[in-house]
Design goal:
450 residues; alpha/beta; Rossmann fold; Alpha-Beta Plaits; five-stranded parallel β-sheet
Length: 450
């Protein structure tokens, strides 16, 4: 798997700097050599080296104190700052200890064997990579991801970035625990590494947020492969009962419950062939925007910024103000308690909704079939009717292709809390409930489809 190229800055006399550069370039690093601390400061305004190698004292016309420069670097550069390797000519232990007190991370003899210097540098780079890797997945973390994207932005080669995360991971963690969620995240990391070849980069930003850098011509194919591989193993992370049911139950405040789809992944793809990015932040935020669009579809899905891709970019939802939404929104209240039905009708009407009320399941089914159909049905399970009760009405509505898109909020005092969701309700609201909670949930459901 590809890693960002390490960057080394050497500050020394021209001859020593050239000798060190020729050796350190063989480690696969990008080496910059300067002959003064002033030149180094100019480079540091845009260069982010992993290691700075400098002498204890810089002689000649550009004389300076390397220890003081270490102190300056520590005081002025924001983390993650470079590793400071000071070359010290003295063998006196006290002087070397003093160099560490000024801020050097390592103090080596000067002169030093070039091969020893190369080995020391490799050891520091290895330690730095471990420090900047995710403890959970051992993949490169945010600092290395930034370095990788910065190098992509100045490269002549074309590239694509895939932003990958898990859908509904919060509900999964709440249901099965954080340890189970960590295992799922590690499984996704393993899939990404398995799908990446030697010239592709995979990083772990945080939690379930990953990034892959690949070539534009294979980006969509990689995304499809990742989705397929994840879907092929995701069932292993659920008990058989939840797999058979086909969804999880999310419990919110006040005992409100809703059905949540089983875990899947979303991928957003951006390409350097489509647009010019201004910074690594621009890459990450744009890729996440496309990933958000992928989340609007059911199951594992990807969306690319390239026109004509297998999963074309959908139109983003247009925001709807409350007034405009209420003008077109109809709510059917199915409630046998006359006082409660009246209260619900008045409260929802004050919110600007068109409200119809009935106490019969049979009448409710007929009203649901009339045009214009209700957008949401607030349903009590304990109904009387010639043919059906509230449970059967809910199943009937959800089994009808034309009526299945109507939101159903089952408000009931029935002790079996999962029965409403199993009947097909989109939301279970236990009675008694407070009116602000009901209004909030109703507004959320209606706006999610506006």
């Amino acid at each position: 798997m590809l890693l960002p190229t390490p960057v080394i800055l050497i500050i020394n006399q021209p001859r020593q700097a050239a000798e060190f550069a020729s050796v350190l370039e063989k480690t696969g690093s990008k080496v910059h050599a300067v002959t003064s601390f002033e030149e180094a400061n100019e480079l540091l305004s845009f260069l982010h080296p992993d290691i700075i190698i400098l002498p204890n004292e810089l002689g000649g016309a550009n004389a300076g104190d390397g220890r003081l420069y270490c102190q300056q670097i520590r005081a002025t550069l924001a983390p993650p700052r470079p590793v400071l390797v000071l070359l010290h000519p003295s063998t006196d232990v006290t002087e070397r200890i003093n160099a560490f007190r000024y801020g050097a991370d390592d103090v080596l003899g000067d002169p030093i064997d070039k091969n020893e210097l190369a080995v020391r540098v490799i050891a520091h780079l290895r330690r730095r990579q471990e420090e900047f890797s995710s403890q959970l997945t051992q993949l490169p973390g945010p600092n290395l991801i930034r370095r990788m994207l910065d190098q992509c932005l100045i490269s002549d080669k074309q590239w694509a970035a895939l932003s990958v995360d898990l859908n509904k991971i919060r509900v999964y963690n709440e249901t099965y625990g954080d340890l189970a969620g960590d295992q799922l995240i590690k499984a996704l990391a393993a899939i990404l590494v398995d799908c990446a070849d030697d010239n592709e980069f995979v990083g772990h930003i945080e939690a379930d947020d990953f990034l892959m850098v690949t070539r534009p011509e294979v980006a969509e194919r990689k995304a499809e492969l990742i989705c397929q591989q994840f879907d092929s193993i995701s069932s292993r992370f659920y008990p058989k009962g939840d797999i058979a049911r086909g969804y999880l139950i999310s419990t919110g405040r006040g005992g409100i419950r809703r059905r949540v789809p089983l875990i899947s992944i979303a991928i957003g793809i951006v390409n350097s062939t489509v647009r010019k990015f201004q910074s690594y932040v621009d890459v990450l935020t744009t890729a996440r925007d496309y990933r958000y669009l992928a989340k609007q579809s059911q199951g594992s899905f990807w969306v690319s910024d390239r026109s004509g891709s297998a999963h074309p970019l959908p139109e983003p939802p247009k925001p709807a103000g409350k007034d405009r939404l209420a003008e077109i929104t109809r709510i059917l209240v199915v409630e046998p308690d006359g006082a409660m039905a009246c209260l619900l009708q008045e409260t929802l009407a004050l919110e600007g909704y068109f409200v119809q009320v009935t106490s019969s399941a049979d009448d409710a089914l007929e009203l649901a079939r009339y045009e214009p159909r209700p957008d949401l049905i607030l349903l009590e399970s304990n109904l009387t009717g010639r043919k059906m009760d509230g449970w059967k009405l809910c199943r009937e509505l959800k089994s009808d292709e034309e009526l299945s898109r109507i939101w159903i909020v089952m408000a009931t005092s029935h002790p079996d809390q999962s029965l409403a969701l199993e009947a097909g309700a989109d939301l279970y609201l236990p009675k008694p409930f407070d009116m602000p909670s009901l209004l909030n949930e109703v507004n959320l459901l209606l706006r999610s489809r506006s």
